[in-house]
């Protein structure tokens, strides 16, 4: 379902304490926004970019997460603000028990929590969602149901359920079409797995524009060279 975004200018950074965060819960899954930090574009930026960048983490959704993919996005958020973007750091905590009450329950609720939080931003342009590791599952669930201007996934989990035994939530399957620019960034050595995935098989030969691009990370999911590749892709894509 696509919903309209209202318009108001973001004038200063905002940090929402976890005690004031929005929460969604059910009998078996709880999600809450535990961090919310908005950085407006720097006055020294060469230009002001109208599309906000949402840098997502999902504490508690820890399958297969590398230590680096779970780190805060502070450096990226600061650098993109200096380049003229409104940046939003969002943590959506996910607590899922050993048996989820319905398929994709925890992932879907986390996406709903993210949408409820982003509505407080009140910006005219749909955001580009940036996520790494397990947070890519929530990012893809979000763009499946809500309006998005683009998607960047770094080290995304595979399409098929890779878990051997304990399964606290059903592995999600996504069917959204790449009607907006999508960037997939595997780690070195992970190109083949990405290119045989649903999104990877739709990758363009050249990055930028509508559709899917694949660029291999140069120095990890929080590295500056990787961030620069994302910035160039944003430019190529017309943001």
From TrEMBL:
What is the protein named?
A: Alpha/beta-hydrolase
Q: Which organism is it from?
A: Cutaneotrichosporon spelunceum
């Amino acid at each position: 379902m696509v919903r309209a975004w209202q318009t108001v200018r973001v004038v200063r950074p905002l940090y929402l304490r976890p005690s004031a965060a929005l929460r969604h819960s059910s009998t078996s899954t709880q999600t809450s926004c535990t961090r919310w930090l908005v950085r407006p574009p720097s006055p020294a930026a060469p230009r002001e970019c109208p599309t906000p960048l949402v840098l997502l983490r999902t504490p508690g959704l820890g399958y297969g997460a590398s230590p680096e993919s779970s780190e805060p996005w502070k450096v990226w958020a600061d650098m993109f603000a200096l380049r003229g973007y409104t940046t939003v750091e969002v943590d959506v905590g996910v607590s899922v028990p050993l048996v989820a009450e319905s398929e994709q329950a925890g992932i879907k609720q986390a996406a709903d929590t993210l949408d409820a939080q982003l509505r407080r931003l009140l910006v005219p342009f749909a955001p580009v969602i940036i996520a790494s590791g397990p947070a890519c599952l929530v990012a893809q669930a979000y763009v499946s149901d809500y309006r998005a201007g683009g998607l960047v996934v770094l080290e995304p989990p595979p399409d098929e359920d890779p878990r051997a035994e304990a399964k606290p939530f059903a592995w999600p399957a996504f069917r959204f079409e790449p009607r907006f620019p999508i960037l997939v960034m595997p780690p070195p050595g992970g190109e083949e797995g990405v290119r045989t995935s649903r999104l990877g098989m739709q990758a363009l030969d050249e990055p930028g524009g509508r559709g899917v691009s694949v660029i291999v990370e140069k120095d990890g999911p929080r590295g500056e060279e990787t961030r620069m590749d994302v910035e160039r892709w944003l430019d190529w894509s017309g943001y």
